[in-house]
Automatic annotation (TrEMBL):
Active site: K23 (proton acceptor), T26 (nucleophile), E76 (proton donor)
Keyword Hydrolase appears in the UniProt entry: yes
Domain ASCH span(s) in chain numbering: 8-106
Transmembrane segments: none
Similarity remark: Belongs to the N(4)-acetylcytidine amidohydrolase family.
Known role: Catalyzes the hydrolysis of N(4)-acetylcytidine (ac4C).
Organism: Shewanella vesiculosa
Name of this chain's protein: N(4)-acetylcytidine amidohydrolase
NCBIfam families: PRK04980.1 (NF003443)
Reactions that this protein is recorded to catalyse: N(4)-acetylcytidine + H2O = cytidine + acetate + H(+); N(4)-acetylcytosine + H2O = cytosine + acetate + H(+); N(4)-acetyl-2'-deoxycytidine + H2O = 2'-deoxycytidine + acetate + H(+)
Pfam family membership, one: ASCH
EC class: hydrolase
Length: 107
């Protein structure tokens, strides 16, 4: 069994939402779902790999694309339509995804 990851990347335009504590979930596919609840994880920008902040993983739960709703959009700090378009673009044709809940530890 491999160790849980200690880093996560976000698109640069989303990192202010993470560093301010406004964004408290991210929805990823199975390849990016192996985070351990209770672990501290470093956040980097995807495009430039700049360190943004640290977060603590609270939970990792399966989430069907079809079940993504306004609750998830609020936690993502994004409009629901924008969130669903983004997820479809990043993870096309993947009905089963994972919701990673987290809290900001240090900006
Ligand atoms: C490799 C990588 O950084 N991938 C992703 C995947 C998703 N996101 C964002 C986009 C949405 O806000 C949520 C839901 O997927 O997570 C991201 O920043 N980076």
């Amino acid at each position: 069994m491999s160790a849980a990851p200690t880093q996560i990347t976000f698109f640069e335009f989303l990192t202010p939402l993470v560093a301010s504590g406004l964004k408290t979930i991210t929805i990823r596919d199975i390849s990016e779902s192996h985070y351990q609840p209770g672990s501290q994880v470093e956040v980097f920008t995807l495009e430039t790999h700049i360190k943004v902040c640290d977060i603590m993983i609270l939970a990792v739960e399966p989430l069907a694309f079809a079940d993504i709703n306004e609750f998830h959009a609020t936690q993502e700090s994004l409009p629901l339509a924008e969130l669903k378009l983004l997820i479809q673009k990043v993870y096309p044709n993947q009905p089963t995804l994972f919701m990673i809940s987290f809290k900001l530890v240090a900006a």
